[in-house]
Amino acid sequence: MIKIFIFCFNFLFLQKDTSTVTHKEHLDVINGYKQLLVDIREYKLSPQQARERFQEMMFIMKEAHPNTRYDSTRVQLCFPLMGFDYRAVGGYGSGYIPRGYDLFDQAKKGSHPAHDIFMKDKNQDCLDDRTGEYVPVLSTTDGIVIAIENGWQTGSEYRGGNYIWIYDTNNGGLWYYAHQREIYVKTGQVVRAGQKIALVGRTGFNAAMPRSDTHLHMTYLRIDDDGNPFPVNTYGWLKEATTLLDPRIAIDLEPITKARKVEIQTNTKPIPNIKALETAFKLMKPTAVDKSVKSRRRHRQ
Predict the structure, then answer these.
(1) pTM of the model
(2) Pick the residue with more confidence: 293 or 38?
(3) Could you tell me if residue 146 is inside a domain?
(4) Which residues pair with 270 in a beta bridge?
């Protein structure tokens, strides 16, 4: 009798579904992450309260997507600007400053846990001077959009402007894209690596200033086992990223010799009044450059 009891207990325990995440809880995270950001920005939560809410959200996302695996040596990305490669990154990566970063405390300043990726836009109209076209922002990996801002107004003090947050379903963690002119995706949408998600813009308090060059601001946050976010320097990943190099833009870059294949996912609904890209792109993989070459880019946010 005792053996039967033990067998039944073990069977029920081992067969129990360890995933306690419901569909509603998953949607609550996707639909609630932006509100968390707003509450942090407006000081409606203490840093500790914000951290605890964030941890709860990340536990749910990790449990809802158990196949995600973070391995810094195996991360494969699509370069986030169509037509560019890693040499467009400000200061060849030297603009990445993680010290002092705290997602939960807006009072802390001075860090820049991100890379700014610049386009040539002398008159600051968001059109690339070499192509006369807007520059598409591509999703670096597969993921789920968990927050967007698409209503930034000139004069607003908020620094991110129009932004996108994506939970990475390949590697875990969060990608943050800021300063967009227009956004193609919506909260809850599943995106694929190489999918067009936005256009590079000049939204955000600092990015809209005449002193700022037109750029994409991009951050990656790794989530540890306790649900805490830590910024990661993605420059090495960007150097190896799959690239769609536009030959018109390549005029200002070093020669590219090796090609890599990438499949680009496109949205069915184009942005109104925006000219669609008609240029054929060459599929390229960047080669290393002489780091002694002085950067022509600034790494100002």
Answers:
(1) 0.79
(2) 38
(3) yes
(4) none
